[in-house]
Design goal:
By secondary structure, this protein is an all-alpha fold. It contains three helices and no strands. The chain is elongated and about 60 Å long. The two termini are 22 Å apart.
Length: 85
């Protein structure tokens, strides 16, 4: 879940910025809502752990699972898809 939090919160910020740019100059107007939306979403990557740390934790966990599969050990659900590597 920490990996999803980091991934989705980062993508949310990128999506709000892209939507604002798509609106051109009107995206900078406060009545467009992007300033409020960006203000609401921008702190999310640091809630309950900074995204870079959380991505590192998720990556280390996945590497451990891949090493288990390489050692001919079977993984339980929800990681059974890695058994076919």
């Amino acid at each position: 879940m920490s990996g999803f939090k980091a991934l989705f919160s980062n993508q949310g910020i990128l999506d709000v910025e892209e939507a604002r740019r798509t609106c051109g100059g009107a995206g900078y107007q406060s009545n467009a809502g992007f300033t409020q939306l960006f203000g609401d979403i921008s702190p999310i990557p640091t809630y309950e752990g900074e995204n870079n740390v959380m991505m590192g934790q998720a990556s280390r966990f996945l590497v451990k699972l891949i090493k288990k599969v390489a050692g001919n050990k079977r993984l339980e659900f929800p990681f059974t898809y890695l058994n076919d590597m």
